[in-house]
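Reviewer 2 asked us to include a model.

Predict the structure of this chain.
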Amino acid sequence: MLAFLRVKNLALISDVELELSPGLTVLTGETGAGKSLLTQAISLLAGKRQSEALLRRGEKRAVVEGIFTLDPPLRQALISSGLPVDEETLHVKRVIQRSGPNRTQINDETVTLNALRALLGERLQISGQHEHTTLKDPEIQLWMLDAFGGLLEDRARFSGTFRRYRQLSSQLSVLKRRRDEEKKDRELQAFQLQEIKTAGLSQEEFTQLSEEKSVMNHAESLLKNLQGALDVLYEREPSALSQVQTAIQYVKEMTAFDSHVEEPLKNLNEAEIFIDEAIGALQRHGARIEFDPRRLEDVEQRLSIYATLFKKYGGSMEAVLKTQERLQEALSASENLEETLASFQREQEETWRALVDAGRVLSQRRRRVAGVFSESLTDSLKELGMPMTTFKVAFTPSVFPSSPKEDDVGDTGFDAISFLFSANRGEPPLPIRDIASGGELSRILLAVKALITGEMDTQTIVFDEVDAGIGGRVADIVGRRITEISKHAQVLCITHLPQIAVYGDHHLLITKNETGGRTRIGIQPLMGEERISELARMLGGETITPTTLRHARELYQAAQSLKGNKS
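Predicted model (structure tokens):
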């Protein structure tokens, strides 16, 4: 609940602090005293958008602060949101500035308005003078029916499944578009990869073929030069080999007398070996050098394949092999895309079946609850001065579809509803958005809130002049209804009717005064005879007579006695 409220520099409010208590607090005062400014201040704590027009004239910033008691659900909501948690309270602060950024804080941490609404939107409800118009919204009507029936958790679970289904549908659409866009690319990639694989290229073969072609193209020159080398090394006298052998004999004889020639002798011996090995290698190679036109044609055809693929895929063996690797990865990714697509389709089908099952159960429960809701609301409206009321809940479709389609479902289920209402005997009930007056809508809204408050997490409800257009006995019944609501939530009720004010557990008087040429709003807690005097003013105007005081006291004592309080 809202335990403390501070409002500074908001319109006519200079600086006001309020300690608030559980139960029903009534706020009264003359017309124009500024009672609704408190409603505006509290609505800022619930996440309403701020307006610079609310700033008090001449001030640079306005501040609204609220301290809420921390119950377990609110504590858990703070933890889930990752916000700091105090031991016992929740501190909310709104700052509106004429220049510079406005700020919203929860427990001294700056947050967005959406975060504030998510935290307190349902726990702090403002029932203003025009809120009854929301009853015309079918989505609000459905929410009220679900709240009455204790179906909000079922509805939340359904909404989670629905969001997952929509998410899967969106992801599937993206994947299908990607698959279709890549289809032509995949066909080309598969062709290119097959072309490269079929060619069976390798760096080793390319090098060997290139050398073989070069040898055959220059066979005559190679054989001529090879023979010339063999002539010099071995066949022509004196040959290089025979001359090295002769030199070895000379140097060997020298070693008998001079050890310094042992190293040159070693080198000459190695030279003889190397020359001999070179002669053998040249002879063997020469035996292999030949010009074979057929073989040359085969080699050139094979090398042309290399040349074609080099030209198409990067100009080198390295580039072609990298292209092959890239194409293989791309086609593997395409296969993975198909697998992912199939997996998402399976999950989407499973989620749809779960969604239909959950929607069918939710729809059945709503239809069972709708009758009880209609009867309870009809009885309540009769007590609120509408004795000929007929109220029903109409479902669209009238029965749950045997084969639901995607177009049939929304975030809240497969059902659409409409509140049907008639205030006159013999007249068929019609949608309240078409026929209910403002006063009738106000009473319907009050009756609904009385029915559903106990089923919700609401901590605080503010009623701003919910008594518009009523009086007498009906006003007394409205007071009792608001009292019933205050058993389940803290209620702040701004009222002009003493028949409602007498039911308050606490009474605050809103005053408007001039100080130093400026208008200021003040708030004064009333107790005892001060409260009786204010009730008498509400009954009889500015002139308060003993009779008016007696009447006010009787009204107050009767209401408090009905509540079980000693006055």
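The longest strand covers residues 506-515. Residues 1-123+463-567 form a domain with the Rossmann fold fold (CATH 3.40.50.300). We have added this to the supplementary material.
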